[in-house]
Task: structure prediction
Amino acid sequence: DGGITQSPKYLFRKEGQNVTLSCEQNLNHDAMYWYRQDPGQGLRLIYYSQIVNDFQKGDIAEGYSVSREKKESFPLTVTSAQKNPTAFYLCASSIRQGSGNTIYFGEGSWLTVV
Amino acid sequence: AQSVTQPDIHITVSEGASLELRCNYSYGATPYLFWYVQSPGQGLQLLLKYFSGDTLVQGIKGFEAEFKRSQSSFNLRKPSVHWSDAAEYFCAVVASGGSYIPTFGRGTSLIVHP
Result:
């Protein structure tokens, strides 16, 4: 089945450690996105990528990094510089920038800093 | 830049009652509009979308939404709510020109009483 796969579903990290969240899609979508979700705050855009080897910062990029070496993969690294990383992280993708740009989401990853 | 307002943080309805969730947007031209649903700890699922044409759009799970340009609104409705509809609902808008990055509302939490 086509879809967006995020892993791991749950992740615990010690303070000061970097952690990488995986996102893979087999929908042949051009664009991919990372959102952060905190209770009562909706979705906030971290990074997005419209094509391979190119990505742009979203609203809350500080303390995060991404890469887009392959069309189907868009991993997110939460660095030790992120002051409050405990959150629910959502990866998404869309077929292209035009035609309304319908975005589809993965099932999310919970990150807890201990 | 576009913006989305979901004025209701929580909505409580009885099972079998009708439902309307409000969404207002701010954008100079006709935007692309979406409603998503999120169950606890899960990703977002697309309910329906409006790009152009008929202003009343039908979605999955018995939901519909009506685009009203004069009111800058895209309210979500369902004639009879089921207990399984309890979830978080997000409205999103994509500008028809520009980066095509969606802007999400803060969400409305639907509580269904038996």
About this structure: The mean pLDDT of chain B is 93. DSSP finds no helices and twelve strands in chain B. Residues 32 and 88 of chain B are 21 Å apart (CA to CA). Chain B touches chain A at residues 9, 32, 34, 36, 41-46, 49, 51, 90, 92, 94, 99-102, 104-107 (CB under 8 Å).
